[in-house]
What does this fold into?
Amino acid sequence: MGQLRRLNFPILFLSFGLALILWTNVVALRQEEQSVTGAFTLPVETRNLPGGYVVLGSIPSSATFTAEGNRDERTKIDPKNLKAYIDLSKPNRSGKYVIRLDAPTEYVVSWNPKEIPTQVHLEKEVQSDPLPVTVEAIGQFKLQNFRYDGATAEPSTIVVTGAESLLKKVDKVRAYLNLSDLESQSSVRASIELIDKNGAPVQGVRPSTDTVVIRAIIAARPPRRSLLIQPVWQGSPEFGTTIADYQFTPAQVSVEGPADVLANLSVINTKPINIEGLNQTTTLQAELDLPLGVRLTNPSPISVKVFVKSSGNSPNQPGNSNSQGNP
It folds into this structure.
């Protein structure tokens, strides 16, 4: 009897060990099945946006939801059947909304989080009054014996649609015309830009058209002449001083216009330059008094340096030969 017992003890211990190992594996498998998770990152859709409203600012482009369940249920999930969305059917002043998950009920898993809070600002959509299209020329006009006389846009006005707060930022509708493109054609199609007072694009609004046809006005170039500038003074320098000389920058200008008008010009007069009470050498800005039909070929700022000297007790003396017209 004792011998039988001695033979059974090792078998009992072995059986107990095998049972313990088997039980441990079963528990581990069950725990593994219960703790299986999977994360799904999905693009966010907007749903039920009320008519006449627009979304201001940005909405999260994606959201992540995690599924938790046993392995078999987890493997059933097809990401194509999952949708993340925001329901905008009820606009509110606070702008508080949530991102939810739209998943088939056949997936027996738990989703975390249930919903994701986010901020969305809705505003009523309105239309602007017709806005004129401004054509801005860039580049260099290269056609010989012709000149560029401006351009027109077709359509000449557009309507902009968007949130009222954004429409208020639109200061100008701009289209660029590259003068270099006019070598082979007089009309081009150009994109328009909606810009604010600082010249920056206004985002989030829609123009009634994205492009316009720009038609350049090209005319035969009239005759040209280079002429010296003749000052016309207004007022008198301070008592005891006189205008000794003057110097224009540039010294002469190139003008174009009708041949009969240019033929009668020897100089170009300035508009009256105020020198009242002048008592020292000073640089002043000057404007040209251009005859009708005459214009500068290369407009640029014009200045005149007026040299003042003391005349002592003698009357004002005339300046040098460049100072004709001195008071």
Q: What stands out?
A: The two ends are 150 Å apart (CA to CA). Helices lie at 2-34, 71-76, 164-167, 259-263. Residues 66 and 96 are 23 Å apart (CA to CA). Residues 128-220 form a domain with the RNA Polymerase Alpha Subunit; Chain A, domain 2 fold (CATH 2.170.120.40).
